[in-house]
Amino acid sequence: MHCPACQTPTLVAIELDAGLGGLGCTHCNGVLLAVPAARQWAEAGGETAWAGHVEAVEISDSGAALTCPRCRHFMGKFRIDAGVDNRLDLCGHCGEFWLDAGEWNLLGALELRQHLPSIFSQMWQLGIRQREAAANREGRLRELLGDADHARVQDFARWLRGHAQAEAIRRYLGLH
pLDDT averaged over the chain? Predict the structure, then answer.
């Protein structure tokens, strides 16, 4: 089987963690995993022995579209989290996914290994977009108002959220 990232015929059986095996490329250090295997590993409480242990390595990302080495279909790219440039590649046909070199450690550093199967879900991807949209709105408001006034607006919003008469205040301000 050929590596989807570097095209060398060097995929060999590896074990990323106890109970989580895949096929690793000896040339580029990427890893091919199956979604069901990752889900089973996560549900079984995977990486309990590795909690807090993440090796620092250089992280790469295959920018180009990849072809699944198992079934030869194109793999889709899925975001990992807001503010993270790397994308995980998933074959929607056979359920295999590709981790580029260092992405396993990136997932560990972000404490997202246990959520690995969920990263490919529509809900996860929507959550990323929503968090980024909220951060963009905050950034635009801060830019418009300046730091001091932005802080005052945030203080007011916190006060309003906790106030017993929040709805009446919103109506008075025309915010309802």
Answer: 89
Q: Give the pLDDT confidence of 115-144 residue by residue, as tens digits.
A: 988 999 999 999 999 999 999 999 999 999
Residue 162 belongs to domain spanning: 146-176
In tens, the pLDDT along 46-87 reads 765 444 444 544 566 667 889 999 999 999 999 999 988 889
pTM: 0.76
Asked if residue 134 belongs to a domain, the reply is no
Residues 112 and 150 in one domain: no
Token couple for 57: 């390595």
CB 175 within 8 A of CB 167: no
* C-alpha dist (Å) from residue 159 to 2, 101, 142, 156: 58, 46, 19, 5
- Look at residue 6 and tell me if it is in a domain: no
Residue 98 β-bridge partners: 32, 89
Q: Taking a C-beta distance cutoff of 8 angstroms, is the pair 54, 21 a contact?
A: no
**DSSP classification of residue 61:** -
Q: How far apart are CA 169 and CA 161, in angstroms?
A: 10
